[in-house]
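Suppose a colleague, Dr. K., hands you the sequence of a protein chain of 181 amino acids and asks what its three-dimensional shape might be. Before reaching for any lab equipment, you can write down a predicted structure in token form. Begin with the sequence itself:
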Amino acid sequence: MRWLAIVSGLTMLCAVPAFAAQDEVETPDGVLNPEQLTIHSIVKRYDFAHGSLTYCAYGYAATKAGDYTDGVDIFKKCSEHGSDASSIWMSFMSENGFGVPKNPKDAAAWAKKAADRGYKVGQFDYGLALLTGDGVRHDEAEGKRMIGLAAAQGDTAAKQLIESGYNLDLAIPDPDRAPSF
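The predicted structure, expressed as tokens, is then:
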């Protein structure tokens, strides 16, 4: 009996390559073996998504999976179609060098894009950039105005920053002073 189980198992293992996924093949009748359930396939099919929030959420999934190239592609396209959250993600990725070169000017520009569209997180982030001069010319008055706009929309961090007298240590933690666990 044991011999029969071993032979059956080996026979099945030999058959597995016949069922393995194959590359996409273009034919006159369409595509055989289309890539369907990967983030990369979603990036390729973007034209059919038209900036939907579902599509934009794949940028987050790609980024969390370490696929920064696809994440950047998705967030850029979504930002172009008006997704303010995607603009903020591009700001974060530019600030930290994920999928794009680390660039404070680009990070501030992406935050400004969301701020200009009235997004409170963009207003807060761009306000911080103006207050600190990170990626933009330091402009305390405009930075406080942006933080005020975010607070007026209910942004808790903006309200706390104003209540603290613009104590930037509350908004921008110092990693050297972070508690150790």
